Every structure is written in structure tokens, then in C-alpha cells.
Amino acid sequence: MSDDTHKIFVCTTCRQKGSDCRPGYELIAKLQEALKAAEPFVADDFEVSGIACMAGCERPCTVAYRASGKATYLFGDIDPDEDIEVLVAFADQYRQLEDGWCSSTTRPGKLRRTTLARVPAALIVTEADTARAS
């Protein structure tokens, strides 16, 4: 996949509260299936993969959305049985945002209140940029 591909990372280490169950792999499979069903936009624009830990242990299961030149989002309290539609809706929204920036009030469903972090896109400062600023 190219650098333009949007990525969704799902924690595979998170455990459901009070259980040894790790729903990350189940969430990955359900999300991949739902994204394929949401044609024509998502299948080619998103890559879903597992990641060992995103330090959202107190709010399992955690999911992150990332793309080059866009803000990155980390969401917690995601349930593979209840939240697939919301995750796909945000994928569509995120894909359409030029810089990935959106307020909590415009995010779908429970993602309005389960955001753990929004990280601005990295700015790469070159020597030429520094010289112009001087």
C-alpha cells in the first residue's frame, strides 16, 4: 500500500475489563469485513492491522486512525460487538478530511466521548524553511 493509505490500528493486547478476553483480533476481523462491505470508498483507502499496545489499557479496546499529513486519533472503550458501524462511519469522515482535524461534536456516535488522544500531523521543518523564517 502507498503512503497515501489511511491506516487503522487495533490494540491486540487490550483485555476486556474483569476478563482475560483480548478482543483485538475479533475487532480487526469484523472491521476489515465491514470496511469491505462499505464499498466503494473504504476497501482501497484503508489498511487495518493489529498493534501490540497503544497504552490505552484502562479504556480497552483501543483503536487509532492515522494517515500521512493528517491528525492521528486514538479511541478507547471500543466493543467489537457494538461499535463497528461507528468505526466505519469515522473512517469515511476521516478519509474526507484534508488535514484529519475534526471536533468531537462532528464525530459519529460514541467516538464523541471516547477520544483518548488527537495528535496533530507532524510538521517537517527543513533548513530552507528555517532560513526563510530568519
TrEMBL record:
Classification via InterPro entries: DUF1636, Thioredoxin-like_sf
The name this protein goes by in its record: Putative metal-binding protein
